[in-house]
Amino acid sequence: MPGVMNLDSVACARCDDGFEPKAKIVNSNGELFHSSCFVCAQCFRPFPEGVFYEFEGRKYCEHDFHVLFAPCCSKCGEFIIGRVIKAMQSTWHPECFCCEMCHKELADLGFIKNQGRALCHECNAKVKAAGMGKYMCQKCHSIIDGEPLRFRGEVYHPYHFNCTGCSQELTSSAREVRTRPGYTANELNELYCLRCHDKMGIPICGACRRPIEERVVTALGKHWHVEHFVCAKCEKPFLGNRHYERKGLAYCETHYHQLFGNLCYCCNQVIQSDVFTALNKAWCVNHFACSSCDQKMTVKTKFYEVDLKPVCKKCYDRYPRELRLRLKKYHESEAARDQRQSTA
Predict the structure, then answer these.
(1) Is residue 29's pLDDT more than 90?
(2) Which of 102, 196, 288, 305 could bond to 283 as cystine, CB 3.0-4.6 Å?
């Protein structure tokens, strides 16, 4: 009868034995197996959930197939099932083979080997330009030989842009305007030539020479971005704190007094009130003390100089007589030398 299998004419594809009339038969792509014969060719165990992989006529469970034949990804170390990327003498998942600088997937973009690294074309151009001490244009991705135009935090050939006002081709001196009255910050991002920009009356920062479109600091006869108005010594922004001006430069309070004023020899802070001067140093009045016993001293207290530090009479008298004689002789010779230099 049609549809009835004659068990006498078929055999198990694995063991070549026939099938019992009531035996369970597994049909895999037209091949028949005893249920006990339909197992992994490596571990001889049944296939979990019936899933198997076939290679060169032999069937394997998923685990053994991966161990025996599947390549491992050079990045994540996992077996690769499906599309395999072969590059840099290794194998990769498509999503694991990325540019080492910008982390874009390279499977469909192509890459360039640069000093043992896989880079996309854009990043390779950046590295090449940086090695030459130049910039790479973010529009055409070629090296900028002259001065770049800076726009939205990136650099470009100036000739890629035209002035928003007069439509002339721009140069590297073009100004970027991020906002104007009626617009929020970074809503515009327009480029203007110098002539059109000057007509807009936007102040220019005295440090970076870029337009100031938000809060303006006016000092030293110039305008500044808040973050660019800094101490000439420590280069920290004043951020609204008091500054001191001297010879066209601005200084924070600490460095102004350190360079041109008085700092206490003891606490190293700016002396705000009366200054006690001794031994060519300055002290806060309440910090001038004996270096041996820490006894506070005043202008009326008798003291001696020992190792360029003040010592009160009580502590000085405790020094050995020989040491006091040496100190006295030393100070007398220093005084005589200073007198000779003053009369010379």
Answers:
(1) no
(2) 288
